[in-house]
Amino acid sequence: MARPMKRILVTGSAGQIGSELVMVLRDRYGNDDVVAGTNRTQPSKAVQESGPVEVCNINDKGQLHSIVDRYDIDTIYNMAAILSAVGEQKPLLAWHVNMDGFHNVLECAREKELARVMNPSSIAAFGPETPRMNTPQETVLKPKTMYGVTKVAGELLGDYYFKRFGVDVRGVRYPGIISSETLPGGGTTDYAVAIFYEAIQKKRYECFVREDTVLPMMYMPDALKGLIDLAEAPLENLKHHCDFNMASMSFSAGELAAEIRKHIPELEVTYKPDFRQAIADSWPQSIDDSAAREEWGWKPSYDLATMTKDMIEKLSARLL
């Protein structure tokens, strides 16, 4: 049986996913029982005012251990990471944070016998040799970005710590994440968030991938629910641990623009691919997530139409 979670540390709590994850976890488990850890960036006002916040650099082992001890942390959601686009500009930093930092988290969990470590992976773990349509759970993992390399290595390292030391490490392969609350943090799928802001504020957007670029995407509420559901799943139900494919919807950049135009007809979109196009072309277009559905009951709630409507309503209320 999986041990229940008591007190939680979220690293990277100022990031796109971490900032919203903290608030959902606090609502679920209590404000005082979820510690927001951040390194250089200030977390949102909501995160700062609703519960404990600590400076937490996962590459500082002593600092990490101190926080775990002071708050009697039982579970770590390791959301601290350097993403794909930034990782190509600063590959050594990506390795340092995504691998050395994650190893510190695992060692902390092993030494202090924590209940659980959640460490998301990504579709960046795939590469050009991976089947791009309905990408299988078990498939070729030969990424061409440093971010992808660290995600594959992280999956393997997490599985090793589970099998070798009994550390309950779990993770999902996230597709592109679209959020109405926080700006993206340097990933290849950032266009799918930026286009909403530009559509509402300027009625025009220059997209950095081609119009026909198709990638798997997910709305943030589904991304958060899926990760928490996996964390709470009985261990005996899981055949996989650190590498669950998780899917929601797939669409092209042009299809997204067309859906937004149903709400903002005057939107003008131009396409000027940059270095991120090659990264996008190495990733899947659709994902087979049957293992997640079978082992812990994963099921998304949003599709392109419902996500777009919700995004525009929430952003319009905040930006206009």
Q: Summarize this, please?
A:
It contains 12 helices and 14 strands.
Helix content bin:
40-55%
What number of domains?
2
CATH superfamily of the largest domain: NAD(P)-binding Rossmann-like Domain
- The CATH architecture of the largest domain is 3-Layer(aba) Sandwich
- Going across the biggest sheet, name each strand in turn: 3-2-1-4-5-7
List key phrases describing it.
alpha/beta; 14 strands; 320 residues; 6-stranded parallel beta sheet; Rossmann fold
Give the helix/strand layout.
Blueprint: E1 8-11, H1 16-29, E2 34-38, H2 45-50, E3 53-55, H3 61-70, E4 75-78, H4 84-89, H5 91-112, E5 116-118, E6 121-122, H6 146-165, E7 169-170, E8 172-174, E9 176-178, H7 191-201, E10 204-207, E11 214-219, H8 220-232, E12 244-245, E13 249-252, H9 253-261, E14 268-271, H10 276-281, H11 290-296, H12 304-319
Parallel strand pairs: 1-2, 1-4, 2-3, 4-5, 5-7, 6-8, 8-12, 9-11, 10-14
Antiparallel strand pairs: 11-13
